[in-house]
Design brief:
By secondary structure, the chain is an alpha/beta fold. The chain has 3 domains: 94 residues, Gyrase A, domain 2 (2-Layer Sandwich); 100 residues, no CATH class; 112 residues, Isoleucyl-tRNA Synthetase, Domain 1 (Orthogonal Bundle), CATH 1.10.730. Helices cover 45% and strands 9% of the residues. The protein is built from 12 helices and 7 strands. α10 packs antiparallel against α11. The radius of gyration is 22 Å and the shape is globular. This is arginine--tRNA ligase. InterPro entries: Arg-tRNA-ligase, Arg-tRNA-synth_N, Arg-tRNA-synth_N_sf, DALR_anticod-bd, tRNAsynth_Ia_anticodon-bd. It is an enzyme of class 6 (ligase).
Length: 361
């Protein structure tokens, strides 16, 4: 069962409880899933019971127990092995062993040509936004990245900035940072809610860092934090988060090339390497992170998530290829598929931040 399928299963449980008169609430449009927090268990957790408790007139724990019974009844055939209620009403869901393979299949299928990328919304959401940035380099990069992220969630976006940016001297800045705007000033008749993008300004000129490092330096800190415009973003070592993200992606691409030379290809299946749970949890959380980054107008959430995915990918990489005289097996193909899925998520996330994901680093 994939995260999308599980979310639908939880929604179905809510509808069944409403239809049976066990809950008197409006069924939400979607249910958010995330890795369990402290004290939780299983692969996924949801706080939907806490959200429905007030309208239902019951405690969150009561709502969670109602939904737990429905999930155990409706979800057994779909891959749910257990449901546990923890804390004030968090629903923790455990899946049977096929879940990692299904998640990898979903990511790779979404990454194929002509498909909606993993974590992106299929079709328009109906939401329209006008992003308006300050005449300052960090604000312009944030507007550009936010437009990419919002569009990935089906939002119709127009981008503008203060009129001062229409001066010719800004052309080189916009081009050097890969920023594309629809216009400048307040003359746009676009009828949509206006969102002001005015983060803490950059303390220096980021252009000497180059487009990719400059954008990372301006996007990874939260909007209320002052970015660091230093050469630390260019060093190729493990204490540079951007390097770790791009290196992890490049390693997954190299593994695919090396595997092809050995005569085998990725094939989703059970992964027998210990320590892959953090990676699977991070990959499963990617759609939620994208939705949250769009909802909160916070590209830094996506940047930090990519670091989490990259760090969780590293323990898998040395196990992918056969060693010595070992022959490629189903286990190697499954590990290669998981590595490819991780690389797909990293590349897609970097693209939304406007940063290249090179195959060679």
């Amino acid at each position: 069962m994939t995260p999308v399928e599980l979310s639908r299963t939880v929604l179905h449980a809510v509808r069944r409880a409403v239809d049976a008169g066990e809950l008197r609430v409006t069924v939400p449009e979607r249910v958010a899933l995330a890795p369990p927090g402290p004290g939780g268990c299983g692969e996924y957790a949801t706080n939907v019971a806490l959200q429905l408790a007030g309208p239902a007139g019951h405690t969150p724990r009561h709502v969670a127990e109602v939904l737990r019974a429905r999930l155990l009844q409706d979800g057994q055939d779909g891959g749910i092995s257990d449901v546990v209620v923890t804390g004030p009403g968090f629903i923790n869901i455990s899946l049977r062993g096929a879940a990692p393979a299904a998640l990898v299949e979903e990511i790779l299928r979404a990454g194929s040509a002509g498909s909606t990328p993993y974590g992106h919304r299929y079709g328009a959401s109906g939401e329209r936004v006008l992003l308006h940035g300050a005449a300052e380099v960090r604000a312009l990069v944030q507007v550009d990245a936010l437009a990419r992220i919002l569009r990935s969630q089906g939002v119709e976006v127009r981008t503008r900035c203060d009129a001062a940016v229409s001066a010719p001297e800004w052309d080189a800045v916009l081009d050097g940072l890969g920023v594309v705007l629809d216009g400048a000033g307040d003359g746009d008749p676009y009828d949509a809610p206006r969102v002001e993008v005015r983060p803490v300004p950059a303390p220096g000129d980021p252009l000497p860092l180059g487009r990719d490092a400059a954008r990372w330096a301006l996007l990874r800190p939260a909007a209320h934090d002052r970015p660091r415009i230093t050469g630390e973003h260019l060093v190729q070592r493990e204490d540079n988060p951007l390097f770790r993200v791009r290196y992890a992606h490049a390693r997954t691409r190299a593994l695919l090339r090396n595997a092809a030379d050995l005569g085998f290809a990725p094939e989703p299946g059970p992964v027998d390497v210990s320590g892959t749970r953090p990676l699977l949890a991070a990959l499963a959380d990617h759609p939620r992170v994208l939705a949250a980054a769009a909802r909160h107008r916070a590209p830094d959430r996506l940047a930090r998530h990519l670091v989490t995915v990259a760090d969780a990918t590293q323990p898998l990489l040395p196990t992918v290829l056969p060693l010595g005289e070992e022959k490629p097996s189903a286990a190697h193909r499954a590990r290669l598929a998981l590595a490819e899925a991780a690389g797909t998520v990293l590349a897609g996330g970097l693209f939304l931040l406007g940063i290249d994901a090179p195959d060679h680093l």
